[in-house]
UniProtKB/TrEMBL annotation, chains A, B:
Catalyzed reactions per annotation: tRNA(Pro) + L-proline + ATP = L-prolyl-tRNA(Pro) + AMP + diphosphate
Gene expressing this chain: proS
Domain writeup: Consists of three domains: the N-terminal catalytic domain, the anticodon-binding domain and the C-terminal extension.
Organism, as annotated: Stakelama flava
PANTHER family registered for this protein in UniProt: BIFUNCTIONAL GLUTAMATE_PROLINE--TRNA LIGASE (PTHR43382:SF2), PROLYL-TRNA SYNTHETASE (PTHR43382)
Protein role: Catalyzes the attachment of proline to tRNA(Pro) in a two-step reaction: proline is first activated by ATP to form Pro-AMP and then transferred to the acceptor end of tRNA(Pro).
Name listed for the protein in its UniProt record: Proline--tRNA ligase
Keywords: Aminoacyl-tRNA synthetase, ATP-binding, Cytoplasm, Ligase, Nucleotide-binding, Protein biosynthesis
Enzyme Commission number, as recorded: 6.1.1.15
Intracellular or extracellular location(s): Cytoplasm
SMART domains: ProRS-C_1 (SM00946)
Length: 510, 510
């Protein structure tokens, strides 16, 4: 058994392990400001990669980026009752615009009280709806499809880094369409962007499906999500897409003249993915040595660590490393130039190696005087860190051979991380449960990390649904979604015994 | 004389003209939220180009991107008196974290009052200083060089789009160093990033220099700026770099152990550039037909407008345009792939052409059935819109010839916009004034858009400086900076008659 780089294993204490990865991989830290984190360079670098790749996809499907105000007047929220009910309990409210000194302390200036308090945006449907109402006059302008990258604030009592913080970063897409069908279709196409992005770029297999009524976005007619399985068997909602009907169009007066000259309300959608994705990446790809970052979203894909000994060979080692870096930087892998770093910080080579292992750089290349003499490099793949004997699987390769193979190796690592996660997801969804007792038993007796179940239900609404939600809540379970690619129902509802309407995923979740 | 696309000319009313460009080029609009604007797709696209190019330069010089909290506890500000004096009068203060319904209206919940109010960051020295204090232990970790892209809020009573808004977007770099010399040198290197970025990418010639004492950033030991000349002769501060001494290190306890094992305060710097740059770009490159965007920061560099007539040739025109687009997208100009759009929106071709003229796309290519038949394209360069006879300078070129020349054309437009601005700057700095009466006369009698003056002064401090600032203020003038490349002083101070110490730029400014 290898001795691992972290002091807590996933098996021992998943929550502690998660926290340790975040610290040891320099992803984020507590900021001293309640509920807000500092995203450190490696964590932010991963987020920037996510932004770049997702942004390309959002733009390629015809959305334009814009920027809307951080502050939303209270009156905007009052217009849409259901929406405000969903958010009012957790918003930061700006009430003053100046501070003064009073008894040696700074306090909000009573003379600078705002006439109308401003809410720090928890999401931007209302303020973007107001813009849509100004912009949209005729069917000719539809669809309007925009997106913004922004910070949002939802006051949270219990926070966890990346997963639930008072301030977080996200992308929010907003669109308006001439018909319900167009809008609904668009919401599904946004979901598909998320599915393919999560799987292709983050190597995160997901289940795409519709949320049950009780989990809809406040004000939405329908909400879809992608759900990923973490290594502790819990689900993480990694992105959501909403068909908003005419809810916001009615509240914000978004109307257009149709081709017959009559006025209609527009049909709107919204969709969002956030820094939560980084938390998901950690819990899906991390191991007991730290993070493993899929090459497509790794800020550095290859890190070269020169093994210097304060001796005169150091110069030859360094120049060999510089040449290697230049060669690798010429390569293309997975349709982008390879991102390669030569780490020359004044830190010992072994500490650097383990630092990059914990950060999860896909390939770590060590170069010492002996490698230089033999024209070699020592290559460590982060997805195959140890040999079966528990020793580090560092492979000595001829330098030109490594350069020739580096692109393929990166593609292969991307693929292998995806496949590991895929088989974990596929292997941990129990589909054979046909009654509530079975469900109960599965989660009570299914071990520490039981996974998910897919069961059939009658798609109840109202009080019946509320009862189902309560029964699940007692087991700390929630309905994740109705998988789009599940076969049609053919049995009975495990909650009511009635004829089932569809299949749902039930799981513990973040 | 051509009839121009805007109804107000720069000569008529510069402020009105500026506003009209913003509206007609779809750059931004009022949001309905006091002091905040909506940045629309074309405006945001320019900002994204600025971000991308500036970010590359900031990263290439060793800065890592991070993200710090939006909210800053009041106590952080109280630690640094001078800093808070500079900002306290204009900050948004969050006092509550929940809303409730009261008498049918939403109000901040008195039970959810924060124990310590939170300030929406006007800048992040204090919260980043707190992080530096956690991160920095030893000289080995220095320098620490980070950057963040963020929104900040400074409550403004009078706002003007892009130039002065309560919320704006910016980049703020923050560094810590082991010595005063290192920090000062770094602050100057950041200024050089700004100078070269403004000139090379935004085609905006600037004067780099140190700000006088009264214009320093609150808490800084020295502040440098780049200043650009707008077409109305006013100055725009387009970026600033600050040497902060140990002010923030002392307030936030940023200390390190030096190589002898003793503890010292670190020396810090910060530097920022904001969405103000977009305002500067408008006022430096816009003309009476709208905006002209330098190719390096244009979201689309070439826009193809198919001239469709709802006839059967339309299909041939469109397929010709698609081929042309594909050919152009293969090209590289100014070290990047050419950004080319085929505009297929259901709008008349003439309206599209003028829309893109007003937006300032560098090259507009029109393609009609006759062009297709002849293998031609009609090319309009935005920097040379009219012939001398006042007619549109649309040039018919063979398609392959245009494709061959498009890259050069874009480089040439970039260069020509820079040169126009350069000769305006060089031609409008008066250097012959040797007394205050001359200065007064220059601005009172120098016409509508007088430009700048470079004069000599004794670099006064304290009350004498305050007196100088007052005298200038009466003329609506400010000292912009001490140009770094100006010759040494060789005369007398125009304010005091004493021997001069250096040369300063005096101007009206935004």
């Amino acid at each position: 058994m290898p001795k691992h780089a972290l002091s807590v294993t996933r098996e021992d204490d998943f929550a502690q392990w998660y926290q340790q990865v975040i610290t040891e991989a320099d992803l984020a830290e507590e900021s001293g400001v309640r509920g807000c984190m500092v995203i450190r360079p490696w964590g932010y670098g991963i987020w920037e990669r996510i932004q770049r790749l997702l942004d390309d996809r959002i733009k390629a499907t015809g959305h334009d980026n814009c920027y809307f105000p951080l502050f939303i007047p209270l009156s905007y929220f009052e217009k849409e009752a259901e929406h405000v009910d969903g958010f009012a309990k957790e918003m930061a409210v700006v009430t003053h615009h100046r501070l003064i000194m009073q008894d040696g302390r700074m306090v909000p200036d009573p003379d600078a009280k705002l006439e109308e308090p401003l809410v720090v945006r928890p999401t931007s449907e209302t303020v973007i709806g107001a813009a849509f109402s100004r912009w949209i006059k005729s069917w000719r302008e539809l669809p309007v499809m925009i997106n913004q990258w922004a910070n949002v604030v939802r006051w949270e009592m219990r926070t966890r880094m990346f997963l639930r913080t008072s301030e977080f970063l996200w992308q929010e897409g907003h669109t308006a369409h001439a018909s319900a069908d167009d809008a609904r279709e668009h919401a599904l196409s946004s979901l598909e962007i998320y599915r393919s992005f999560a799987e292709d770029c983050v190597a995160m297999p997901v289940v795409a499906g519709e949320k049950p009524e009780n989990e809809r976005f406040p004000g939405a007619d329908a909400t879809w999500s992608i759900e990923a399985m973490m290594q502790d068997g819990k689900a993480l909602q990694a992105g959501t897409s909403h068909f908003l009907g005419t809810t916001f169009a009615e509240a914000q007066n978004i109307r257009f003249q149709n081709s017959e000259g009559n006025f209609e309300h527009a049909w709107t959608t919204s969709f969002g993915m956030s820094t939560r994705m980084v938390g998901g990446l950690i819990m899906i790809h991390g191991d007991d040595d730290g993070l493993r970052v899929p090459p497509r979203v790794a800020p550095w894909q290859i890190v070269i660590v020169p093994m210097l000994r304060d001796q005169h060979e150091d110069e030859r080692v360094l120049s060999y490393c510089h040449e290697l870096r230049a060669q690798l930087a010429q390569l293309t892998a997975i349709n982008e130039p390879v991102r390669v770093l030569l780490d020359t910080k004044p830190v010992k080579a072994a500490a650097k190696r383990w630092g990059w292992v914990k950060k999860g750089a896909p390939i770590i290349v060590e170069v010492g005087a002996r490698d230089v003499a033999g024209g070699n490099v020592s290559v460590l793949r982060r997805d195959r860190l140890y040999n079966e004997d528990g020793k580090l699987a560092s492979e000595i390769m001829e330098r030109h051979d490594f350069v020739d193979r580096a692109s393929d190796m990166l593609e292969n690592i991307q693929q292998s991380l995806y496949e590991q996660a895929r088989s974990r997801l596929d292997g941990n969804i129990e589909r054979g449960i046909t009654d509530f007792a079975g469900l109960e038993a599965f989660f009570n007796e299914g071990g520490k990390y039981p996974g998910w179940v897919e069961v059939q239900w009658c798609r109840p609404t109202g009080d019946v649904l509320a009862g189902v939600v309560e029964r699940l809540k007692a087991l700390k379970l929630t309905i994740r979604n109705v998988p789009m690619d599940a076969p049609p129902a053919d049995g009975d509802c495990i909650f009511t015994g009635r004829k089932a309407a569809e299949r749902i995923l039930v799981a513990r979740a973040y």
